[in-house]
Structure formats: structure tokens, C-alpha cells
């Protein structure tokens, strides 16, 4: 299994396997000599490690948790490699496997703990919770007869998740109902979506927000494109911002969706020939009729950079936003005997033009590697160093650069569009925007039921009285806010409330469609489709 993200280092057994695999003619004698020297070093250092553990166990003034101590040693080994090779303790493996397999078993809700109760933020599409009729804002007050007040998130996972086919009975308090009601839900497989939103931004522009590359990603994106095609999509904004990556194979599959010629998408090079691969586009899977803009930022890494790099190098679409993370390394996750694993870097990957986009790093120094990513002047600094970076050429002979992420064709820095105090309010753990919108929707059910989404998006407006009602709600809930910042960001706040109402009425896609109205990078990208369309007709 090849995945992008952080990696893991080589255990003693793995080192032996890798070295044994290199004992081949005609370099057998030389490699044998090197491996014998490596084994001698390992043997000597293992003796020292045994001594250290013995002395610590016998002499250290307090009792020592040897399992924790050894996990620290394993972690230290991996940190001496590159920043993406890591050791993963057994207790963390289950969550990681669920994340990349793209599913778990339970009832299927996005939730938070609000006012002491499990509050449904959104039921997962096609989940048992959605089929049972749970709605945003519902509070789960009992689980299998047990009071759920002040329940922790960990306890929620333990009680609501469970094997497929098993029942769980919950009692639900809903806004507008006098008494809680009881419902039994049968647990099932719950997908963990890679596509967080697929919605029409206007009458011709489709928008897909992809948050990761898991085992189900290509199927999800195909379904999202099919849905948007049915709604009249003529051009696509593909949002990969803050997508930190995932499976290499899935990245190639996603890029292939937009490539209708037999081109190289990505290729890898490593120490061993069996980790070297070339991914070629299958023309039967791709399409060339859709103007494409790919939106990236400094949080777009690995698999995201493969997609953006292929689109850019092959002059298939326009890359817009900020210079990406700069991760050109491939990891393989290897399970260990105790249920833990290592994720070890096995190769570098290269874009179609031959670019290696890995940022420089020093072995064992993760601090500076990640600190550089958050420098305020990062873009200007990288631009000033362009002359020192290797040049490559796209299919149409445009200049692109290696050695530090994917530089966008059009640089558009992110602008929050609101004051810091407003951003604090948006992220307040009491979720005032969600809660106020749930109350509003409940109180205006009759009038809202006549709206359809496109008309709501274009014509629905919250009033001054609604804005004051929101401020009154903040005071009632004892949520502190900056009055000057709130009034200055009034339009932004009203749009955020409108998005929450849309989410309540139609779902997360529609909520995102309204939320994006205030995203400066999205709005800038919408003005660049004419330029992106030129790639469909231009040939080298």
C-alpha cells in the first residue's frame, strides 16, 4: 500500500528484509559488504540499547512504563529520517485505518456536545441516522436508557458506534416538540466522505471540495461530477485547499478524470526497482470538454500536488491560489507484530514534466520544516528564490519550477473577509451560528418550505431584525463578542447564518454553496475560467 502523508522508519526486521533484497548479481559482493557493516552497527547498538533499558529499569528512581519508553525510542528512530516517516502506536492504528478505508460502522451523524447533550450537526447522507429521520439540531438525551447529559465525545463513539446490524435506542429532543421521542436505529457501514461538497456555484459552474484521498475518493468524485452534470455544469472549480493527501493510486485516478490523452500523470523513483511506478492516463476515463480551475493553498500536499502538478504540466487547466506544501515523497505503511506500524518513505514522485516538488529539509529537524510553511511572507520569499530553482516546461512550453511545491498559475492569497473577533465567534464551541439557524428554521417552517435552493440562494435575505435577534441570542447564551467587529462584519455574519439555514433545509452541499459567496479565492477563480478554457483548444 502506497500512501502520501507522514511516513514511518525501518525496524530491525524491515532493515534486514530490505538489505537481503539487494543481494543480487552483479553488485552482490559490494552490497554484501555494506550489509555486513550495517548488521555490525545494528548488533553493537542493540547491545547498548539493552544496557540502557536494564539500567533505567533497575536504577531510575520511579517506576517506568517500558511500553511508553520503547514507543518513544521507535518514534525517535523515525524522526531521524525525513519529516514524513513516522512510527504509529497500535492504539492509533484503528482510527487511521478507518480514515483511509473510508468507512466505519455506527449510526452516521456529525455531532458536537452542546449544552451538555449530543447535538446532531448533520446526519451523514444515506446513513441509518438520516433514514431514521434525525435532523440538524436534534439533541440525543438518552442512549439505550442511559442519561446522556454531560456525555464525553469518547463515550459517544463507544455507545453509538458498533457492529453492523446491531440496534441502539436513543431518545431525541427536537426544537418545536414538547416532549422527546424515542427511536431505535440499526447500525450500518458509514462512509467517511472525501468529497465534502459538490454544488453549483452559479448556473454553469460546478464546485467540488475534496478534503483527502482515501480508498473511496475516485468513486465519490465521479458521482459528484455526474450529479453536477445533471444540474447543467459547464465548467468546474476543483477545490484542493488544505487537502493533505492520501493514496497515490487515488491521486492518479482523480487526475485521469480530466485527461483524455495517454499522458504520464506521475512517476516514482526509489532505491529498489519494485517501488518505481509510472501512472499513465487512460483516455477512456478522462474528458476534455470541461474548463477546469484547480484551487490550492499551502495546506495542499502530496496527492493534492500530484493532481495539481499533472493538470498544470499537461496544460489541462489553471492552478489558482497559493504555492502548495511541497511534499514529493511516497510512503508505505507497514504493519508490525504488536499492532503498531511504520510509515516509511520508499520513493520520490515526479510530475509529468519531471519536477520533484519536495521542499528542502534536514533529517531530524521537523520544526523548521513546518515553521517555514506558516511564514507570512512565504510566497514572496519563494518567488524571490525562483531563479535558484530548477526550471521545467509544460506541454505548451510554459515555465514551471521544481524544488518547493506547485506554484500556481495565478497567485491569489487568502483573505479572511472578517475581523479576528468575528472568526473567534464563528469557531465558538457553543456553535451559536448553527444553533440560531436551527431555531430560525423551526420558527419559520411554513414560509421556508416554499423556497427552492437556487431561488433561496439568489433572493433570500435576513433582516436587520434577524441580525439583532442573533446578537440577543449571543447575550442570552452568555457568548462574548466584540460589538464593533460584529457590526463591521454584519454582511459576512448574515451570509454565514443564511448558509446554516440552507444546511438545515437542504444539506451540507447547499450550505457550502452559500458560504463560498464570501470566499475571496473562490470568487477570484470564477473570473479565470475564460483563461482556463483556452487550454482546451491550445496545442503545442
What tags apply to this protein structure?
alpha+beta, Pdz3 Domain, 540 residues, 2-enoyl-CoA Hydratase, Chain A, domain 1, 4 domains
In the CATH hierarchy, the architecture of the largest domain is Alpha-Beta Complex
> Would you identify the CATH H-level superfamily of the largest domain?
2-enoyl-CoA Hydratase, Chain A, domain 1
Broad CATH class of the largest domain:
Alpha Beta
Number of strands: 22
Strand content: 15-25%
Give the mean pLDDT.
87
Number of helices: 21
Condensed summary:
The protein has 540 residues and is α+β, with helices and mostly antiparallel strands. 39% of the residues lie in helices and 20% in strands.
Write the SSE topology.
Layout: E1 2-3, H1 12-21, H2 28-59, H3 66-79, E2 86-88, H4 90-101, E3 103-106, E4 109-114, E5 117-123, H5 128-131, E6 139-143, E7 146-147, H6 153-160, E8 167-173, E9 181-186, E10 188-191, E11 195-200, E12 205-210, H7 217-230, E13 235-239, H8 248-256, E14 264-270, E15 278-280, E16 292-296, H9 303-313, E17 318-321, E18 329-335, E19 341-350, H10 366-371, H11 378-384, E20 391-393, E21 399-401, E22 410-411, H12 420-426, H13 432-443, H14 445-448, H15 453-459, H16 464-476, H17 483-488, H18 490-505, H19 508-515, H20 520-526, H21 529-533
Parallel strand pairs: 12-13, 13-16, 16-17, 17-22
Antiparallel strand pairs: 1-18, 2-19, 3-10, 4-5, 5-6, 6-7, 6-8, 8-9, 11-12, 14-15, 14-19, 18-19, 20-21
Helix pairs in contact: 1-2, 8-9, 13-18, 18-19
Amino acid at each position: 500500500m502506497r500512501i502520501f502523508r507522514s511516513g514511518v522508519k525501518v525496524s530491525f526486521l524491515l532493515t534486514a528484509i530490505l538489505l537481503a533484497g539487494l543481494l543480487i548479481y552483479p553488485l552482490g559482493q559490494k552490497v554484501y559488504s555494506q550489509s555486513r557493516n550495517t548488521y555490525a552497527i545494528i548488533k553493537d547498538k542493540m547491545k547498548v540499547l539493552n544496557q540502557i533499558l536494564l539500567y533505567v529499569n533497575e536504577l531510575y528512581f520511579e517506576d517506568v512504563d517500558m511500553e511508553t519508553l520503547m514507543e518513544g525510542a521507535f518514534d525517535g528512530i523515525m524522526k531521524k529520517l525525513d519529516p514524513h516517516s513516522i512510527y504509529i502506536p497500535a492504539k492509533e492504528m484503528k482510527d487511521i485505518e478507518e480514515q483511509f478505508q473510508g468507512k466505519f460502522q455506527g449510526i452516521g451523524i456529525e455531532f458536537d456536545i452542546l449544552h451538555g447533550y449530543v447535538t446532531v450537526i448533520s446526519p451523514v447522507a444515506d446513513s441509518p441516522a438520516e433514514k431514521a429521520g434525525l435532523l440538524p439540531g436534534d439533541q440525543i438525551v438518552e442512549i439505550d436508557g442511559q442519561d446522556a447529559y454531560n456525555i464525553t465525545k469518547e463515550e459517544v463513539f463507544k455507545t453509538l458506534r458498533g457492529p453492523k446490524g446491531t440496534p441502539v435506542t436513543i431518545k431525541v429532543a427536537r426544537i418545536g416538540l414538547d416532549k422527546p421521542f424515542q427511536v431505535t436505529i440499526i447500525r450500518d457501514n458509514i462512509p467517511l466522505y472525501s468529497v465534502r461538497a459538490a454544488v453549483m456555484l452559479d448556473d454553469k459552474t460546478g464546485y467540488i471540495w475534496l478534503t483527502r484521498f482515501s480508498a473511496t475518493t475516485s468513486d465519490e468524485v465521479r458521482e459528484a461530477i455526474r450529479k453536477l452534470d445533471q444540474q447543467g455544469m459547464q465548467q468546474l472549480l476543483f477545490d484542493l485547499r488544505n487537502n493533505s493527501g492520501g493514496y497515490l493510486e487515488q491521486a492518479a485516478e482523480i487526475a485521469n478524470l480530466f485527461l483524455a490523452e495517454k499522458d504520464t500523470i506521475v512517476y516514482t523513483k526509489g532505491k529498489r526497482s519494485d517501488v518505481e511506478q509510472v501512472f499513465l492516463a487512460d483516455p477512456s476515463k478522462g474528458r476534455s470538454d470541461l474548463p477546469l480551475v484547480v484551487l490550492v493553498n499551502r495546506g495542499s500536499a502530496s496527492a493534492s500536488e500530484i493532481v495539481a502538478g499533472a493538470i498544470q504540466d499537461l496544460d489541462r487547466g489553471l492552478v489558482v491560489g497559493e504555492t502548495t506544501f511541497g511534499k514529493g515523497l511516497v510512503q508505505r505503511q507497514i504493519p508490525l507484530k504488536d499492532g503498531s506500524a511504520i510509515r516509511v518513505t520508499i520513493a520520490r514522485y515526479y510530475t509529468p514534466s519531471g519536477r520533484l516538488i519536495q521542499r528542502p529539509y534536514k533529517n531530524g529537524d521537523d520544526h523548521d520544516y513546518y515553521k517555514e510553511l506558516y511564514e507570512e511572507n512565504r510566497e514572496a520569499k519563494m518567488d524571490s528564490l525562483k531563479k535558484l530553482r530548477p526550471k521545467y516546461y509544460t506541454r505548451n512550453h510554459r515555465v514551471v519550477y521544481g524544488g518547493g511545491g506547485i506554484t500556481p498559475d495565478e497567485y491569489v492569497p487568502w483573505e479572511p473577509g472578517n475581523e479576528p473577533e468575528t472568526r473567534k465567534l464563528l469557531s465558538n464551541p457553543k456553535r451559536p451560528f448553527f444553533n440560531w439557524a436551527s431555531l430560525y428554521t423551526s420558527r419559520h417552517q411554513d414560509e421556508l418550505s416554499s423556497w427552492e435552493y437556487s431561488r433561496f440562494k439568489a433572493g433570500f435575505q435576513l433582516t436587520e431584525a434577524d441580525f439583532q435577534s442573533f446578537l440577543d441570542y449571543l447575550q442570552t447564551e452568555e457568548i462574548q463578542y466584540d460589538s464593533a467587529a460584529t457590526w463591521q462584519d454584519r454582511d459576512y455574519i448574515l451570509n454565514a447564518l443564511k448558509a446554516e439555514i440552507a444546511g438545515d433545509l437542504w444539506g451540507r452541499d447547499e450550505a457550502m454553496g452559500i458560504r463560498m459567496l464570501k470566499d475571496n479565492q473562490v470568487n477570484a477563480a470564477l473570473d479565470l475560467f475564460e483563461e482556463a478554457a483556452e487550454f482546451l483548444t491550445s496545442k503545442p
